[in-house]
Structure formats: structure tokens, C-alpha cells
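Each letter names a residue; C-alpha cells follow underneath. Both lines appear below:
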Amino acid sequence: MTTSQTILTTAIETWPLATAFNISRGAKTQAQVVVATLENGDHKGRGECVPYARYGETLDEVAETIRSVAPDIANGLTRADLQLLLPPGAARNALDCAFWDLEAKSTGTRVWELAKCGTPNTLTTAFSLSLDTPEKMGAAAAAAATRPILKIKLGGTGDEARIAAIHKAAPNARLIVDANEGWTPETLAPNAEAMARYGVALIEQPLPADQDSLLRDYNTPVPFCADESCHGIASLARLVGLYDMVNIKLDKTGGLTEALATARAARDIGFSIMVGCMVGTSLGMAPAMLVAKSNDIVDLDGPLLLTKDRSPGIIYRGSEMSPVGPDVWG
């Protein structure tokens, strides 16, 4: 257990991507993360977050929010206190995961035992394909055709041509698509029907979050998953009748604590679960692995998109993710 004053340090890190990654809102060539480290005596706990402009977050502001909690932590702030001090979001995620990691290191107990969330097992992650022309997306799909699940970024004119090229290039892969709020009420039905024709299993966030209510009157041929519309427990009630699945990301829930609670509540309501991520390193993926169950869709491929991941990091064998050791996290 921690016995002395806990010291917080914060670092901003940049991790180049192997290739540019495009979604309907823009492109990125690097992952920028904030790492919070809690040190107590001989033990250190770390947590990583990815600030996201879609939710009004900037790298510097998130780092400053984390740093602002240092005096409270030095004075004995606990992980439970943190849930009330900061709102859901990237800053709380980094701190929450650092608290979990520090407790695990201090007690010699794995996080999954502390959280009572079940023994972790090997997971199969989706592999994301960046939004591009049908020709380039077809070529990317051909290169990834042996992966069991491909997550396709859509959200613009020509989405039917894109999914047709991908289906042709990777006919045996399970396809899920993510529009990132890029469709409109007018394109919703024709796009969804096109996805159904090509065997797409899931459509993630087809409309902007503030237009969710339009989904209630549409009998979709492909299940819908809420991403930008789903944050923590408080967001679940309004999604009933609009979505079949919710995407739980620790940067949205504000850490593992809320993510586990959100997953339990969502399953109780009847939602299926996707466990997702922003583009980050293994330090950000490892806590999220504890949220997923064997029947969930897992989308934790962030490290696969980087030029280089942390070392040590999660071992990926193709799309299979092995449970991590305490040298990675938890």
C-alpha cells in the first residue's frame, strides 16, 4: 500500500503514425498523448490519455488540468475522490489509470483482481482502414485481407464505392464501418442500405450526435453503434431505442473506473458493447482490454497504426492481443 506522499508528474509525448490516418473530420500523422505518472516510495503508476478536439480538448489544456490536481494528490486525493473532482474526459482517464496502476504495483496485485473484472484473455481487435479513395481503400483492404475484422472509416460522398472496393479486396473479413458523424439525414437510408448489400455487420455513429433522435424512426438494415454520442453511464438512457451497441472508450468515460461501470450498466440495459480507443500506445490500450468480454467487438488497434510502440508493450500477433504483464501496466 502507499505509505508516503504521492507525487504527480506529467509528460506530453508524440508518436508518429506509420501512414497518415484520415476520418471524416480530418487527417493526422502523429498520435499526441499525455502521460500521468504517480510515484509513491518505490512504486510508480502510469496512465495515458489522448485529448480530442471533438470534445473541446487540447493537448496543453488537458496536461494543465492533470497538473492542477498535483496538490490534491499530494494531500491524499484517492481514485474515488477523483471521480467527483474531474469530469469524464481525457485528463481524468490518465489520472484514473495511473491510480489503478499505482495500487497494483504497491500491493503486488494485478488490476483485474483489484477491479474484480475477470481474468483477462486474448482478444481479437478490429484493424482500421483510413478514409480515402475507393482505389486506395481497396488496396489497403487487400493488404489487410487476412485480418478477421476490418473497421472502415467512411463519411463522405462515394461511400458505396468505397465499401464495394473493400468487400471485393477482402471478401472473407468481417466489415464494420465508422462514419464519424459524417452522414446526413438525407444520405442515412441509401448509405445504410448500401452497407447491408455488402454484408457490413455494424455502422458506427452515422449521424452527428445532436441528430440522434432521427434514428428512432428509421428501421435500419444494419445495427447502429453509438460512439460520439456515448460517454459514461449518464449518456446511456437517451440512447435506448436509437442504437443497438455503444462504443466505450476510456478517454470518453474518464478512465477505467467509469468504463467498467458503464459497460456493466450498458449490458444490463441490453446494449451490445464495443471497446474502442483513440490512436495511442499500449499504455492506453492495456486498461481498455479489461473492459472487453469475449462476445464484444474490440477496436484497440492504436499501436498497430504507429511507426513504433512503447517497449515493452502489448504483443500483437496479427490482430490477436495478448494479456499484458505488469511491466506494461497494471
